[in-house]
Amino acid sequence: MGLPWYRVHTVVLNDPGRLLSVHIMHTALVAGWAGSMALYELAVFDPSDPVLDPMWRQGVACFGFGAFHVTGLYGPGIWVSDPYGLTGKVQAVNPAWGVDGFDPFVPGGIASHHIAAAFVVAGTMWYGSATTPIELFGPTRYQWDQGYFQQEIYRRVSAGLAENLSLSEAWSKIPEKLAFYDYIGNNPAKGGLFRAGSMDNGDGIAVGWLGHPVFRDKEGRELFVRRMPTFFETFPVVLVDEDGIVRADVPFRRAESKYSVEQVGVTVEFYGGDLMEFGCSSGIRNIPKSWRSNYKETSSLIQHYCVEAIIVN
After folding, report:
1. pLDDT in tens, 203-216
2. How many domains does the chain have?
3. Which helix (H) or strand (E) segment is 304 a member of?
């Protein structure tokens, strides 16, 4: 089985033209594989089940390969060659945890690196660690997909209502920092390479909490914004009722806008935050725990977001 691999590499290592061409072809193959895998993972993705979270699953697979397959604990091991390529064979390999594990010719480094990488991927990148405090790095992917902070916010509001506080009073007691952690800009999938504009303009540095908006349609049904999972970098603004039925959205194209917030007649009331005293008729372009950067006067902000501004008692 090793003969074709050996023969091809002998050729390309001595022919720059072929070396370039096979790498171009390899790029195409990898792109096709990555694309098909992305579609597959999108089809099975479920943020409520860690087994179906790609980051978690890949970490577990990485650990299994290093701890079981490579070591021979439950698997064949890996191919280990002698210096002259005469007596190479598949054999179990013990992890090399010392400095020698960084030697590319020490097989044990393959086992130890896969085991360590599993903890980096499934552990620190997904669940966070002591060196990634959420105050500085924002919520972890696990926290965001679980709605960790949203649940705590609703728990506190429910506790306030149980103490006979009004909805406005209950939301006013929510710490701004807690609301900020559930702000869409803190979704770990946002930002990074594809974030446009300067940090102090528009979608940049958050300077205040506008409040928690409660959306309603013309029939008076309360609407909830569908949560954006960390699988995506962008996500449509879709409003659903308590049964999960789509009632409104912010359309990408006017030709398909029968659920647009304007046509459905979505209204909004704010509780807590800077806009607690206000409400809006249709035309709202906001989402829960909304923040705006460098906003001016509250009145002009209301006019910017709404067709009409009304006072909410």
Report:
1. 556 777 888 888 99
2. 2
3. helix 298-305
